[in-house]
Amino acid sequence: xxxxxxxxxxxxxxxxxxxxxxxxxxxxxxxTGIPDSEIFSYRGKAQLLGPLLEAKVGDExxxxxxxxxxxxxxxxxxxxxxxxxxxxNQIALYDGVPEASISVPVGRDFVYxxxxxxxxxxxxxxxxxxxxxxxxxxxxxxLVRPADYDPDNPAYKTAYGYATGTEFDRxxxxxxxxxxxxxxHQVAVVQEYDWTEFSPDYWLxxxxxxxxxxxxxxxxPEQPFSALVKANSGETVLLRYINLGYQQHxxxxxxxxxxxxxxxxxxxxxxxxxxxxxxxxxxxxxxGQTLDGIFTAPAPGTYPVLNRDCYxxxxxxxxxxxxxxxxxxxxxxxxxxxxxPGQ
Amino acid sequence: xxxxxxxxxxxxxxxxxxxxxxYIWGFSDAAGKKAQLPGPRIVVxxxxxxxxxxxNILPEATSLLFPGQSGVLADTGTGPHLAQPxxxxxxxxxxxxxxxxxxxxxxTNPASIKYTFTAGNPGTYxxxxxxxxxxxxxxxxxxxxIVRPADYDPAIPTRKTAYGENTGTEFDRxxxxxxxxxxxxxxxxVEKGTEYKxxxxxxxxxxxxxxxxxxxxxxxxxxxxxxxxxxxxIMAEPGEKILIRYAGSGIENHPLHxxxxxxxxxxxxxxxxxxxATDLSYKRFTVLTGSGQTYDQIFxxxxxxxxxxxxxxxxxxxxxxxxxxxxxxxxxxxxxxLGEKGDIPVGVTSFNGIGEYYFMLHSHEEMQITNWGEFPGxxxxxxxxxxxxxxxxxxxxx
Lengths: 343, 398
Ligand SMILES: [Cu+2]
Ligand SMILES: [Cu+2]
Hints:
- The complex is a heterodimer of chains A (343) and B (398).
- With 343 residues, chain A is mostly beta strands.
- Chain A has two domains: 3-151, Sandwich (Immunoglobulin-like); 171-330, Sandwich (Immunoglobulin-like), CATH 2.60.40.420.
- Chain A has two helices and 19 strands.
- The two termini of chain A are 25 Å apart.
- Chain B has two helices and 27 strands.
- Chain B has a domain at 2-154: Cupredoxins -  blue copper proteins (Immunoglobulin-like, Sandwich), CATH 2.60.40.
- The longest helix of chain B is centred in the middle third of the chain and has 9 residues, at 184-192.
- Chain B is mainly beta.
């Protein structure tokens, strides 16, 4: 069991949509290992999604939140928090709800502590004025590996542990959010926004809109999570679906049904242990829910990933765009082993 | 047993925390009383013959549907008959069921109606208008029914259950959360008698038990909320089994997220999740409560054992370096530990009582936790975990 020390900065920044438009965001930046004297150079460098938070059951995670302030909005002295969405038996101090414990003002640090108890796909997000801070981009993926996880032993490279039927060769995120550019603009120019008018014009997979979704991670440094799924034919692929938007979404992969092996970080088991995993073509799920889906890569080819609510496959009304990506399957042996989740 | 309930379909006003007063239609439980939101809670026992009389004093016909109940009878004075959809002379549907007409209708139809059914299954159900439901239900003509299992006995732990002995649904405390939405434009159009197009429905408020946060956290029967009698705060002690009943009485589907732990969903729509011997209950951290659906869940929070003797593994910075009560108030105790109190910065009001923990319960479509765009508000409440042995009989629905 390891001790994991991480430090995330909260700040602002900009993201780009495929039509060239730029959008102001709040978000996270990884400060782990950065000397104190240098952390201020990370102001204004928020990324969407926030950095991956990964731990194993039994690890001890010390996660420092440092509020770097907002260079674009120096008037805005908002605090931030980190809420681990779904953490079992949480105590109020580490739950990140400012009304129920503390928040972190500009220029300050706070250490959150977690000892993960259950494997699965979770989310972290800021819970300070959440309607604004979540939409503005303070969200990230969080995955907990089973205690016996061993990436070098196929029987133990699993989502939920040895002999749970959740072995995989590669894993990817399908992280859903929306972007209401009018809201982001109002925040950037210090104007009020009536959140009941929320009406997104971009729909994002892993913080990107198609065709940026299928570009490599390095192509968009502020949006470092590619949404392209790659596998060799015959390999097992784990998809970690997360919805942290404000809408319900229906995601399908044409030609590839997936076996649902986890929902909200819980295996579908009967109370007497019966394995109730099931197959889906279209995964319809709501804000604040996660799913774990597994498929075996079929014959080499390209398989589109799309939102079946097709109006969401657009960038400010122009198609194709939005929540579209691809599963690319190669001849067995083509791709080297995956370097890490989403790589 | 026969249970006779009398309701009045009437009007009134609801309050929102941002100072709005919104015209509603709804049910009251006494003649001359204003409508309340939601309607009176109806608690009966499986096997009861339930008779509900609706006295209509609204300016249009109204009725009641009982989704999840079978064999509902209607009686407008000519004797009970199977409640049936009503059509006009041209065959157009005018009501999903037999209705009570508005008083003084020249057609001289009765302005009251009695519905009778046998509560066949335990569980959580809605009752709601079946006449112009696109208008009358969002206006507030809805409420919830709890049917207790036939063997229910709150004095015997194995029989204090949602679905009967040996169904795995034992509970210590119980809470009912009915969720809905408010589009003030609809309410004001009905009040003024002007036109409203339901396809333009655009909620500005979202409610739990007819209240918007932070009013959701106030106790039942607050004098300042005379027509919104039900609080939505969940209170429990560590390790207890809490039965939480969600009911979606609005138009939208709401992903309800409870902090602190997963819930175990034991029943949907008043039916136990069981197939023969196979227990199909399941755990979630977010429950998408659809329009018209009900979810019965068992929730337990036991904590991780932190106490001053077994302290948390981090050091809390000086509170001068933290945000506490950014809005001038906090629910925090000032201490990391359950049952302990610490310092709260000067100028901040703490509503914490005895060191209890608060966890948020809210829709994760975050615009729904605002009051007309202003956070905090809307479809949000709290779960409060109190130190063991301090809560007494809070969380008992009579
Ligand atoms: Cu924030
Ligand atoms: Cu929350």
